[in-house]
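Fig. S4 source data, part A: sequence.
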Amino acid sequence: MYKTSFDGLLQGTMGNSFKYNEPVWDMIKERIPVSLYFGILSAIITYSVCIPLGVVKAIRHKSLVDNISSVLIFLGYSVPGFALGAVLVVYLGARLEWFPLCGLTSPDFADMGFWQQAGDLLHHTVLPLICYVVSSFAITTMMMKNNLMDNLSADYIRTAMAKGVSFRGAVIKHAFRNSFIPIASTLGSLISLIVAGSMLVEKVFDIQGFGMLSYQALMDKDYALIMGTLLLTSFLMVLGNLLSDIIVAAVDPRIKFE
């Protein structure tokens, strides 16, 4: 009638999977590195490309570079990542045979040398990575462009230039920092994307990451595994929101710590 022991989250376990009869936390830990790999690469590529591109588009507004880049990034934004993945698999994978159809490594990956393994991993990474970053390019680029254009037309920029500050100095030292504040507010949310990955993209390319694990848990109605993945995703979302506030406070010059 009475339980003599308890086994749950407060005891440091998430239970066992109903279908696989394996510890939920062990299954999650096995998949997280794959999603981390794609998430970190996506974040690095997105921000290293989109922020400079947004600055160029703001400075050269309505130029040929601005118009062509706008068409390309909005064309990419209009196509969902998983739909683009299906097209890439069919045409670049199956028909042209330029890239592998699925997976993250080849079957003989363990027998390859170091550089062969690196090349094989890169070969399998290209198509999924394109699907990861394609939708975020438009949002980040246009956010950077619009914020920078608003700041460049502000009174404090004209005042700084009237005092002898060059246009380049006004952009880099004054306008860029204020324009980066809205983007900084989204940096914390990257944690959930970096760890959780993309469920549909991983499904299309059959990549055994955290997103694929969440999909399999839903399809199998594995309630213990579902609760484990939801718990981790929810925790990362809360942590990301907290980090976003900290990053904004560090970037925004109007906020001072006392």
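Fig. S4 source data, part B ends here. The two ends are 56 Å apart (CA to CA).
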